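Long-time lurker, first post. I've been practising inverse folding by hand and with some scripts of my own, and I keep getting stuck on stretches where the structure tokens seem ambiguous. Below is the full token string for one chain I'm working on. Before anyone asks, I'm not after the true native sequence, just a reasonable design that respects the backbone. If someone could post their per-position residues I'd love to compare against what I wrote down in my notebook.
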């Protein structure tokens, strides 16, 4: 049995009144929901095979062991879907201060995931690591991602200057399409160590491929347990196409109705766990890039999709919760909670003469954080603000694998309900084309003129100080 429960009580009209979903609304959705479940089974998206690719996981593990033995810094060179999953796994399953520990008890090299091309950050990273003890993992399926390839060029140049081209190659691992793309051609020409990204798995769905598994394994995470949890969740989803039996399908149905029937076009994911804080960032890309589409499959303009946002409990009780409780009825909150933390921190008895302090003594930080979460759920519910919770018994590889896969399946089902292609990202591609033009890529000369003209500011609307 999976150590995970999806609690939908506070999405229902019985709890939150007019802003909750009714049984009649769910019943009306039933035919469409069944069709969505059938579609995902009959045409399974590429990510569904990843939990079962044990041979590939063995290969990743072997490479990770070799890398971990010879380096003390592992840098993931990727962006978006080639970085957010890595960060989420690292935060969830490694020590919260992993990079600050000595080795051992640190289980592997320090992990850095810049996930951007900010020049100050990139330069600072080169200042902070000894290249002799550093391996760079360059991740881009297309091999043409401007951010990733620019970082690759910068880091490779630093390596070549220090070691020469041949030895520099020992510090690079390339993760890209197995056959296509210019980066694959570079791998073949220069003999870099490489891992494949399945051609039918897009970046935001790739955390359980080599994209996410290599950095996880290098830092000591049990990737086979991760895949086992995902496979177990896949079995749960395959077992039933019925509401209240399939958690991912039920989640898709209720969030779809929250958006389309209840006007809740913002979904906030709010972990009450430091370990799960970056799962919310990973989910933001998954939900936004998959469901935020201008047209449906018939070509009709729909401009659909909830806007995913992140908050962290209890931190954001002191920042955005005032808005969530008393502001507009445009949000649904998904809490991530943990029953059993890895450590217990007692709160000491002290200052008995002060009641505002006295009552805390004898409890634990564990109790306090979970009480904060329950209190916030109740406050939202009492204010008629719909919310739900994914409750993990504990945070470990198996449970995290199940959680990520649950959210992927929920997104796949939701794509069917919206009748859109959940696996492309034409809006992102438009931005990429504009970038190519501005950076002078061959073949985009005409586009550059167009972009420069369209983005030329009117001085009337620029205020300088």
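-- Answer (accepted) --
I ran through it position by position. Result:
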């Amino acid at each position: 049995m999976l150590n995970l429960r999806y609690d939908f009580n506070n999405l229902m009209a019985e709890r939150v009144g007019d802003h909750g979903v009714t049984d009649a609304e769910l019943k009306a959705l039933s035919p469409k929901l069944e069709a969505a479940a059938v579609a995902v089974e009959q045409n399974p998206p590429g990510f569904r095979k990843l939990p079962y690719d044990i041979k590939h996981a063995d290969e990743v593990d072997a490479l990770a062991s070799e890398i971990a033995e010879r380096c003390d810094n592992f840098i993931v060179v990727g962006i978006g879907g080639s970085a957010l999953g890595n960060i989420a796994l690292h935060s969830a399953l490694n020590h919260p201060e992993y990079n600050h520990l000595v080795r051992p008890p640190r289980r592997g090299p320090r992990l850095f995931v810049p996930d951007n091309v900010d020049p100050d950050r990139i330069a600072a990273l080169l200042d902070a690591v000894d290249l002799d003890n550093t391996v760079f993992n360059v991740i881009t399926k297309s091999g043409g991602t401007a951010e990733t390839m620019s970082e690759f060029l910068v880091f490779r140049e630093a390596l070549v200057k220090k070691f020469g081209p041949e030895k520099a190659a020992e510090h690079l691992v390339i993760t890209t399409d197995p056959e296509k793309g210019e980066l694959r051609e570079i791998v073949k020409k220069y003999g870099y160590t490489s891992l494949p990204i399945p051609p039918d798995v897009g970046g935001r769905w790739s955390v359980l491929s080599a994209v996410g598994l290599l950095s996880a394994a290098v830092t000591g995470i049990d990737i086979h347990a991760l895949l086992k949890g995902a496979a177990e969740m896949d079995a749960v989803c395959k077992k039933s196409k019925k509401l209240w039996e399939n958690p991912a399908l039920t989640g898709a149905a209720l969030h779809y109705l929250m958006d389309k029937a209840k006007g809740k076009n913002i979904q906030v994911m709010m972990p009450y766990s430091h370990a799960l804080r970056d799962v919310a960032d990973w989910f933001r890309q998954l939900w936004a890039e998959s469901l935020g589409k201008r047209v449906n499959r018939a070509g009709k303009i729909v401009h659909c999709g909830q806007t995913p946002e992140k908050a962290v409990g209890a931190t954001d009780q002191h920042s955005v919760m005032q808005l969530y409780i008393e502001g507009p009825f445009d949000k649904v909150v998904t809490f991530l909670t943990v029953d059993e933390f890895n450590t217990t921190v007692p709160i000491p008895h002290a200052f008995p003469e002060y009641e505002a302090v006295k009552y805390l003594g004898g409890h634990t930080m564990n109790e306090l954080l979970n009480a904060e979460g329950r209190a916030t759920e109740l406050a939202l519910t009492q204010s008629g603000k719909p919310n739900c919770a994914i409750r993990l018994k504990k945070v470990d590889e198996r449970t995290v694998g199940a959680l990520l896969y649950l959210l992927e399946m929920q997104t796949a089902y939701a794509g069917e309900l919206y009748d859109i292609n959940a696996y492309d990202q034409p809006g992102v591609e438009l931005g990429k084309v504009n970038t190519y033009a501005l950076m002078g890529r061959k073949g985009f000369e005409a586009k550059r003129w167009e972009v420069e003209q369209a983005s030329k500011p009117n001085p009337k609307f620029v205020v300088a100080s």
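A couple of notes from the structure itself: The mean pLDDT is 96. DSSP finds 18 helices and twelve strands in the chain. Happy to go over any region you disagree with.
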